[in-house]
Amino acid sequence: MKNSTAVASARPVGMKDISNTSETSTVIAADVGGTFARLAWVTMSPTEAPVVRNFRKFACGEYPSLASILREFSTDAAADPGPGTSRSAVVAIAGLLEGDHLLNTNLPWQVSVAKTTVESGLEHLRLINDFQAMAYAIPYADPQKMNRLAGSGDPLAGWPALILGPGTGLGAALRLGGEHAAVLSSEIGHSALAAGNELELDIVRLLMRRYGHVDNERVLSGPGLVNLYGCLCELRGVSPRWGMPQQLIEAAQSGQDPIAEESLHVFCEWLGSLVGDFAIAFGAKAVYLSGGITSHIAEFLHDGRFQQRYLRKGALSDALRQVPVWRVDHGQLGVIGAAAWYAEHRVDTPTF
């Protein structure tokens, strides 16, 4: 077996295998964001942990379409797909599927399911929401790699579980329970952003002049972090120095730009407030924070500001102390979740 990784199953006590199949299946699983696409052959078995083979990462902007990425990956002669391989792909992707077309403002290309299937050379293609896939992957996450941000309780011990996080956009999903539980995808990134103090009100006012509707991902995403920084520069009467999230984060970490550093503090506080709001709204018993930038800003998330705003919910503050928030490094969870969705839904397809 070449270039393969077995992912340890980390299910709660008493939780049985979550795949809804008695057969081993291997499928192309993809996790596609606005910046990167992660692909692998993933084998799901009713008795063993998922096995990830030939994991690769593609820069979306370097390819003319999703189909071109899928075709390059699926025709790799050096790949070792695994047992029960099918001419199928399940793509976890940010956005909302409307008929044949994906609604997404953060991808570098339009996506048609029918056209992508033909151009990729695959027989079957399914698209699911990227955070829906993360929700399917959570039972396979390694508790040893989870980092507590707030609340009390054990990893993977409570349902329903809220999974959300900032990347190119802001994604979220809710897993209602353990074995064969429903997973609800969400577009909370496009719901209205709520200010929690005078500074945040000033930022929202500036953004309203530019955009009219100010949604959560106008601030709580990678591009949103740059928007936030620009607003703080305007409020402080200085010119912005950074136009990319990574530049801004590095400037904040190095201490070379105090407004960049303030931007990260405000970002984490605001994110903590939103996570608390949605934990209350969904009755979550656990929250898992992922997304493309959370690992890059870990030191800011863990400095206490996130937790303070998460818990600042008046009469429900004590209740939220019982709801743990875990930072989960994204890694391969997106592709594992896409494959877990495939196994759960018994998508039967011809094999090679």
Structure report:
The protein is of the alpha/beta class and 352 residues long. It folds into two domains: 4-139 and 332-345, Nucleotidyltransferase, domain 5; 156-323, Hexokinase, domain 1. The chain has eleven helices and 14 strands. The protein has helices at 66-74, 113-120, 130-137, 198-211, 222-236, 245-254, 258-282, 298-301, 305-311, 317-320, 333-345; strands at residues 4-6, 25-32, 36-44, 51-59, 85-93, 96-98, 101-103, 124-129, 146-150, 161-166, 170-175, 183-186, 286-289, 325-328. A six-stranded mixed beta sheet has the order 1-4-3-2-5-8, with helices on both faces. Strands 9-14-13-10-11-12 form a six-stranded mixed beta sheet, with helices on both faces. Strands 6-7 form a two-stranded antiparallel sheet. Residues 6-21 and 348-352 have low confidence and may be disordered.
Pick out its properties.
352 residues, 11 helices, globular, Nucleotidyltransferase, domain 5, 33% helix, 6-stranded mixed β-sheet, alpha/beta, 2 domains, Hexokinase, domain 1, 22% strand
